[in-house]
Design brief:
five-stranded mixed sheet; globular; alpha+beta; 62 strands; four-stranded antiparallel sheet
């Protein structure tokens, strides 16, 4: 059994909340929610060492509001019911909990009073402290002797079986009392050993400790770099030199059998050491990166992705690759470190990147030189200081690729890609002093545990949009709930109307000007940082003078982060939200979650409008790409209900190239199972078709009738043998897409599901494989082996037509959809793609004939074996027939030598003259995985093979129709038993 508590046990700017405690009874294969759904943040779970049904949970409770489920909860029946055994107040939960080693009746708990809002973070309060139970959590008392007397913040606890009397605590408090504490009497009294607490992003981000299970004086504290004490906290030092793995450490596990073996959880994933931190190995196959923002390039043939990541800087990578491996870790490039945030590509030059590190540090990077230049605007003399959001908004104008917009509390504009800037607005925020705003019902004194380091300034601009329809029509949103509009490029600004029903000081996550109407704008707002998790999505059709909600039927708790509008159908909207990626086909009246996307926070999304791709940036599962969303455009246009909606829907043009295999075999077996790659979209032309209904089979109809009779409790008649035979003979419906070339000639059948609904299949841009049909399935297929493939079809114009085959006949469903197959322009100069495809088609026909001849030769040779056995059971036959069988067998051996090669020399590992099959196979293997012109050698090989094969076919047919037929006739005349190939009926 495995237990999991959801919601991060940190208090950062972008902390994820959860939905309580989950339990798995099958080692993580499946999970069920078992309570504490209102806790939002679970600090720790303890399982009783002697009773797996008794579990204690430290519930921190909501970060952004009062109430919820806070304190220590206990279950004694495996999670079926819970009892709150330690309750503090509506603002205070428990962040850490420990059993005394060897005595689970003794429990220590760290209470934590805290509150975060957009404007700041109150990191502690008078209710924080350490509590102790001596009856397994039934009752508690606070222990205070030797601990800080003032307000405390986050407290991390650790115990060690090396000395059960020792308890360690790292305590956030005022400057004099904060530090590392130790108790040697099971928490009854405490001694401050050191003033060190976790730093970096703030104690709240780390402030946890782990004690060695074998050395009572060794403790490691989570921090930017691990801090280790080997003398019970008297001194601390950095573990290692910080260069063997990523920084920002949040979790640590000691192997109880070998404490030099440890696992480390960091902002960059999981690491393992076997030498107490001198060296580390990374687990690269865990897709857990957190992205704030995303941009997509216009590079052909494949667009690229640029994303700002939590503590992993800015990452650049392809949306797909030309290899069979997909997008590998090695395909990604890191143009800049630190934290990554707002990003943009130059739409006309995909090698120019705009990116930033935290607090508005904006750079322009040229990938050709990999040099970055800082281009952040700077205030003039006498200007007020700039307040940059941690994730400041950056925009390249849709009307000029040299024009940039950037924002602090005011909007900046550049006409020279950031070399110079002009402020085009004043302060567009409320300009509120965050230290005058309340936490937990009151404004706190300045000496309280405010922790506003490593977070945004307050009252900043968070989003910018310029209308793609009308130049200089600008919108900006702020972190304190305001939206402003300028119709003249920033010359004049007006505050828009308030968003209806939106709480004061909500965060404007996104503003997006319409792709269709200069007066239309969308706004996405977020109030979860004041405890309101409702979705807030709005639309205005008069530049913000009036707003209407388009949250539609989104369920409560679906925080909305980013919105995009399709550029062809104004009613087709896409939404990045807390629990996934959504689309609306009707302007926000109804929202549907896109299947296949993880149910995790999508903090940003962009549309690659040229290709029709949706690119989503998740906060915990990396990037996701929905390749070719055009079917959603058809759905938004009513195709599912339209009379002419059935059949193949519009097909996106397909790129024509050869997917490469850069490693030993597809799947990269050489790298082992910890090598991660994201799959490419299927290679070729993606075909989407809709079947409103499919005729049922006779068996389906009978069973439906029988179910109805069963429900009425009536007798169900036996259907009859003729009916059952007819049902068995009916093969069921088949859905086939016929791909035809520009002349209307069929090129390929592509089969898909024959079920009612919307389906997607892919044509691999090849003609059918010419190989003989083989219905056997090998027990093992090596990774370098592949299914038979045909030659390339040439680039050009094609069409796709859905054909439904049923017992009622053949029906063409809907109309044919035209599309183009376009060559990627990376072939050698002078390549004639049409001639290349024609040559491969010629070789394919030759390979088909070789397969026919080889298969027929094998079949006829097998007949000889049956004839030889039949001859022994035919005493009336003359003995000379044995010699005639040998003669035919020798003739077949001669054909086999010419067609398939010298098997005898091959068995002795000696070379032989190329056979027909050798020559054809040489060209298939050497030319079918390229679009290049065939070599002169390959052309000559095919000329020789064509001539030789014609002679082989003629000679083989002569033997079959001559000597073999005569032999079979003689056996039949002598009354021989039947052998394969003989006609049915009596012998003449």
């Amino acid at each position: 059994m495995v237990w999991a508590g959801t919601g991060e046990n940190v208090s950062g700017r972008h902390v994820a909340w959860g939905s309580g405690v989950y339990r798995s009874r099958d080692g993580g294969g499946s999970w069920e929610q078992v309570g504490l759904a209102d806790s939002e943040h679970i600090g720790k779970i303890l399982i009783h060492p002697d009773d797996g049904n008794t579990v204690l949970v430290a519930a921190e409770g909501p970060l952004w509001s009062a109430g919820g489920e806070r304190g220590v909860y206990r279950t004694t029946d495996g999670g079926n019911s819970w009892q709150q055994v330690l309750a503090l107040d509506e603002h205070t939960g428990v962040t850490d909990i420990e059993f005394a080693p060897g005595n689970p009746d003794v429990v220590y708990a760290a209470a934590f009073q805290r509150r975060r809002h957009v404007w700041g973070y109150m990191a502690g309060g008078p209710s924080s402290g350490i509590h102790k139970s001596t009856d397994g959590g039934e009752s508690w008392r606070e222990v205070t002797r030797g601990l800080p007397s003032g307000d405390m913040g986050k407290i991390g606890l650790a115990v060690t079986p090396a000395d059960p009397d020792i308890v360690y605590a790292t305590i956030e408090a005022n400057d004099e009392e904060r530090g590392f504490y130790r108790s040697t009497d099971q928490g009854e009294s405490w001694e401050k050993r050191n003033s060190y607490i976790s730093g970096g992003t703030g104690p709240h981000y780390y402030q946890e400790i782990e004690a060695s299970p074998t050395d009572a004086d060794l403790v490691i504290q989570m921090d930017v770099f691990y801090q280790i004490t080997r003398d019970g906290g008297a001194t601390f030092a950095t573990l290692g030199d910080g260069r063997q793995k990523h920084s920002d450490n949040h979790a640590l596990w000691f192997d109880p059998e070998d404490t030099r073996h440890m696992l480390a959880g960091t902002d960059a994933g999981l690491y393992e050491t076997f030498d107490e931190g001198e060296t580390w190995r990374h687990f690269p196959n865990m897709p857990i990166s957190q992205f704030y923002k995303v941009a997509v390039s216009n590079r052909e043939p494949f667009s690229e992705i640029l994303g700002g990541a939590q503590d992993l800087g800015t990452l650049w990578g392809p949306s797909r690759t030309a290899t069979v491996e997909g997008v590998r870790n090695s395909d990604w490039y890191f143009p800049m470190g630190a934290d990554g945030y707002g990003v943009q590509f130059d739409p006309s030059d995909p090698d120019i990147l705009y990116l930033m590190t935290q607090v508005g540090n904006l750079y322009r990077v040229d990938r050709r030189s990999e040099e970055a230049i800082q281009i952040q605007p700077q205030p003039e003399v006498g200007d007020p200081p700039e307040r940059w959001n941690w994730d400041s908004p950056i925009l390249v104008s849709p009307h000029s690729t040299n024009r940039l917009y950037f924002a602090s509390q005011r909007v900046w504009r550049s006409e020279d890609r950031g070399d110079s800037w002009t402020a085009i607005s004043g302060d567009l925020t409320t300009n509120t002093n965050r230290y005058e705003l309340p936490f937990m019902g009151r404004v706190w004194e300045l000496d309280a545990l405010h922790d506003n380091g490593a977070m945004s300034m307050y009252a900043t601009i968070t989003s910018i949009s310029e209308s793609p329809v009308r130049e200089d029509a600008l919108y900006v949103g702020t972190d304190d709930g305001l939206i402003h509009f300028s119709a003249d490029g920033g010359g004049n600004w007006s505050r828009t109307a308030e968003l209806p029903g939106l709480p004061e000081r909500s965060f404007i996550n996104d503003v997006e000007a319409s792709q269709h109407d200069a007066a239309t704008v969308f706004a996405v707002a977020d109030a979860h940082k004041i405890g309101d998790f409702a979705p807030y999505i709005f639309r205005s059709d008069d530049n913000g003078e009036n707003w209407s909600s388009i949250s539609g039927d989104l369920e409560d708790g679906t925080i909305a982060w980013a919105i995009q509008q399709d550029h062809e159908n104004e009613d087709l909207l896409f939404l990045g939200a807390e629990w996934g990626l959504y689309f609306s086909p009707n302007g926000g009246e109804n929202w549907h979650r896109l299947p296949g996307a993880p149910t995790i926070s999508f903090r940003d999304l962009k549309l690659q409008r040229r290709d029709g791709d949706v690119v989503g940036a998740t906060f915990g599962r990396g990037f996701y790409v929905l390749d070719d969303y055009s079917p959603l455009r058809e759905i938004a246009g009513g195709a599912l209900a339209a009379e002419d909606g059935a059949g193949v829907w519009p097909v996106r043009d397909a790129w024509w190239y050869i997917p490469s295999v850069p490693n030993q075999a597809p799947g990269r077996p050489t790298l082992g199972t910890d090598a991660y790659s994201a799959p490419n979209p299927p290679f070729g032309a993606t075909l989407t078709y809709f079947l409103p209904e499919v005729p049922s089979t006779a068996e389906d109809r009978r069973e439906e009738e029988e179910r109805a009779m069963r429900e009425l409790a009536t007798d169900v008649p036996f259907p009859g043998y003729e009916t059952l035979r007819a049902e068995a003979a009916e093969s069921g419906p088949r859905a086939l897409v016929r791909v035809s070339d520009a002349s209307g000639d069929a090129v390929r059948w592509v089969e898909g599901p024959a079920r009612a609904g919307l389906h997607r299949i892919t044509w691999d841009l090849r003609r059918p494989a010419p190989n003989p049909i083989n219905l056997t399935t090998p027990a093992f297929v090596p990774p370098w082996a592949s299914a038979p493939a045909g030659p390339l079809a040439p680039p050009g114009d094609y069409s796709a037509q859905l054909v439904l085959v049923t017992a009622e006949g053949v029906e063409e469903v809907g109309g044919a959809q035209s599309f183009r197959v376009k060559p990627v322009p990376n072939a050698p100069p002078g390549t004639d793609f049409v001639a290349v495809a024609a040559f491969q088609h010629r070789v394919s026909e030759l390979q088909r004939r070789v397969g026919v001849a080889s298969s027929e030769l094998g079949r006829q040779s097998e007949r000889l074996g049956y004839m030889r056995a039949a001859l022994l059971r035919t005493p009336a036959a003359g003995a000379e027939l044995f010699g005639r069988i040998d003669d035919v067998e020798q003739a077949f051996a001669g054909i086999r030598l010419r067609l398939q090669g010298d098997q005898l020399r091959g068995s002795l590992n000696e070379p032989s003259v190329p056979s027909v099959a050798n020559r054809v196979g040489n060209v298939v293997g050497g030319h079918w995985q390229t679009r290049q012109n065939p070599t002169a050698t390959q052309r000559r090989n095919i000329e020789i093979a064509e001539g030789d094969l014609g002679a082989v076919e003629q000679d083989l047919a002569g033997i079959i129709e001559g000597a073999l037929a005569d032999l079979e006739e003689a056996l039949a005349a002598a009354g021989a038993p039947w052998t394969p190939g003989r006609p049915i009926g009596p012998s003449n």
